[in-house]
Design brief:
Layout (H helix, E strand, L loop, with lengths): L19 H6 L15 H17 L10 H4 L11 E6 L5 H10 L1 H4 L6 E6 L4 H13 L3 H4 L12 H12 L6 E4 L5 H15 L3 E6 L13 H18 L2 E8 L27 H7 L2 E6 L8 E2 L4 E2 L5 E9 L5 E8 L4 E4 L10
Parallel strand pairs: 1-5, 1-6, 2-3, 2-4, 4-5
Antiparallel strand pairs: 6-9, 7-8, 9-10, 10-11
Length: about 350
């Protein structure tokens, strides 16, 4: 696979564009024009110093999100050439979280030139757009679709016009969707050709891992997931791309024993993430979302967080190559398809 020159890409340091021939020419036994699999460690150290210089000067930046607490996971934002894995049970809002996260990336980071590519295998691209309209116009999503239940009227012309006006201002946004399910090799080909076409860094989302198709040589979903994790690791090491990947939590977290209030077992762990053996090794950040009220947990975990909001989300940072594991709190606003930061719930001490 090949790629366009990356010297001017804001998400990729200039030094990272050195090709294998340049590195090989300085290696023992290396010859100019002949590729070698090794690199001199001293050259890597100089590359790392250049990376630090570019970070210090502001030439190389992270991608900030609208959530300051989420930015604290990385280096004040999402890191380029990294893999973020987000896991949750159905009904918690994985797709909503990822859409909320990526929706404003280009506006917030207007000083960086990049594109967003969604592998959206779970829903139609149209449904993804309707959810964004709901958040942007602050309109109930069922009202927008004229469900006419709960006493809601059909969508009014003036509200439809708000949506039309919003969409007209988003047409040039560098955001794209693939909504046809693919296997790992097909996804890899799309990523390489897309990045070559736009010739800029790309944020890539996948919703979700279980919907990636098996190819003829794969005999199980686990093998497909292993190939997917390997492919994403290779892509982020070679190209200026960052992955935000959605996956499932296993059913074990639904067990009644794990819903007893105030227990450590309330918290999801890496073992609860489907295919964690592969994803955990490759992920730079692994996150598991839980909605305690879904299980009627009034005191959540050994910290005994008081849960009195049915839309409160506990975000568990299980793995973090950029910092420490942590718990963050958000609130899902399902009616208007958005997610906002929430205060840390009160902790109730044991009597």
């Amino acid at each position: 696979m090949s790629n366009q020159p990356l010297e001017s890409s804001p998400g990729r340091p200039r030094w990272a564009a050195k090709n294998a021939e340049e590195m090989a020419s300085s290696a023992p036994g290396g010859a100019a024009g002949k590729k070698q699999p090794w690199k001199r460690y001293g050259d890597i150290m100089q590359d790392s110093i250049e990376y630090l210089r570019r970070r210090a000067s502001g030439q190389l930046k992270s991608l900030r999100t609208q959530w300051p607490t989420f930015n604290s996971i990385g280096l004040n934002g999402i890191e380029w050439q990294s893999l973020y894995v987000i896991a949750a049970r159905p009904g918690v809002g994985k797709t909503l979280i990822a859409a909320s996260l990526t929706r404003n990336l280009q506006t917030i980071n207007h000083d960086q030139d990049f594109a967003v590519l969604h592998f959206q295998f779970e829903m139609l691209g149209r449904n993804m757009a309707v959810r964004e309209f709901s958040a942007a116009a602050n309109l109930n999503i069922r009202y927008m679709q004229s469900a006419q239940d709960d006493g809601l009227p059909p969508l009014k012309p003036e509200d439809l016009q708000k949506i039309v006006d919003y969409a007209s201002h988003q047409h040039s946004r560098q955001e794209y969707i693939v909504d046809k399910a693919m296997n790992v090799k097909q996804m890899e080909d799309v990523i390489v050709s897309f990045q070559r076409e736009v010739n800029k860094p790309v944020v890539i989302t996948l919703d979700h891992t279980l919907l990636v198709r098996q190819n003829a040589s794969e005999t199980s979903k686990q093998q497909t997931l292993q190939n997917l994790a390997t492919m994403m690791t290779e892509m982020k090491n070679r190209l200026p791309v960052t992955f935000i990947v959605l996956t499932q939590l296993n059913r074990e977290i639904d067990d009644a024993e794990r819903q007893r209030p105030g227990q450590l077992s309330n918290y999801p762990t890496e073992a609860d993430v489907f295919g964690s053996d592969y994803l955990l090794q490759c992920a730079d950040v692994m996150i598991a979302y839980n909605r305690p009220a879904k299980y009627n947990i009034s005191l959540y975990g050994p910290h005994r967080y008081e849960i009195n909001d049915k839309y409160l989300l506990a975000m568990h940072v299980i793995k973090n190559r950029f910092g420490e594991p942590s718990i963050q709190w958000y609130r899902a606003q399902y009616e208007t398809m958005s997610v906002v930061e929430a205060p840390i719930p009160k902790m109730i001490p044991k009597k």
